[in-house]
């Protein structure tokens, strides 16, 4: 399906100034993306990444400062992107913070969860074919934390579980048939970016934080995959994923479509609840 081609598509990537978001931008450009607009709170990194990508791929990338935890910023930035590119084909809701610290958890929740909902809503309005849009793809970044125990970071896990459930609910058939919008959920496992550093201060409990940091540092039952593995997985998923699907990229292994397994578990629980 032409819509699932990267070539000549315009992308909006939140949190694209650094980490995985910047690497997704690079990979989409190398696959022929027409334009990429990076939205990020970090202006310095955003401008530097934009300049670097433009030097390598031609003038295809622009940067707009946006704090994805703030509704006003999101509204302004989204309008600015539409004014600039006219048609957004793909939104990657990637901006995220992993920090359950009592002083930061609310900000982290706002970025990871409210930000994703807000951009998804705006994306639906802009893209939906049944209201004059051109269709498109919305990729919401969750995490394997949404699918595994990960008890040490309950706020982060909660936000990522919410992203996964929200994305699946909103895309229930005939959503794709009506709107032409493919909603995908991408769940990376631990991946080697700044997000997995300084873990000692990222949990709600300092003792647990120190243990968690040691566990990850010593690779004690924990594998942190390479950034390239996650980026390859993203590109492969983009090209082949059907609407309303959930994909996992972990342990440097090929990307896996886990929708059937996850839907099956939810259905089994639903049946058990209904049988009470
Ligand atoms: N690295 C990992 O192990 C995993 C990452 N993820 C998810 O992937 C996404 C990207 O993570 P990484 O690249 O690893 O993180 P990172 O920390 O390396 O990069 C995050 C980017 O988001 C930006 N950002 C932070 N707060 C923002 C805000 N309020 N508004 C706009 N931009 C903001 C940062 O400036 C940075 O450019 C996140 O949603 C994360 O939860 C999911 C699973 C595993
Ligand atoms: C297994 C969940 C991986 C979540 C990936 C993610 O979004 C961020 C990870 C950051 C760092 C650590 C990576 C892997 C840790 C794996 C297991 C630790 C389990 C600890 C616990 O549940 O208490």
UniProtKB/TrEMBL annotation:
Signal peptide: none annotated. This is 15-hydroxyprostaglandin dehydrogenase [NAD(+)]. Its EC number is 1.1.1.141, 1.1.1.232. It catalyses: resolvin D2 + NAD(+) = 7-oxoresolvin D2 + NADH + H(+); lipoxin A4 + NAD(+) = 15-oxo-(5S,6R)-dihydroxy-(7E,9E,11Z,13E)-eicosatetraenoate + NADH + H(+); prostaglandin E1 + NAD(+) = 15-oxoprostaglandin E1 + NADH + H(+); (15S)-hydroxy-(5Z,8Z,11Z,13E)-eicosatetraenoate + NAD(+) = 15-oxo-(5Z,8Z,11Z,13E)-eicosatetraenoate + NADH + H(+). Pfam families: adh_short (PF00106). Keywords: Oxidoreductase. Belongs to the short-chain dehydrogenases/reductases (SDR) family. It is an enzyme of class 1 (oxidoreductase). GO terms for molecular function: 15-hydroxyicosatetraenoate dehydrogenase activity; 15-hydroxyprostaglandin dehydrogenase (NAD+) activity. InterPro entries: NAD(P)-bd_dom_sf (IPR036291), SDR_fam (IPR002347).
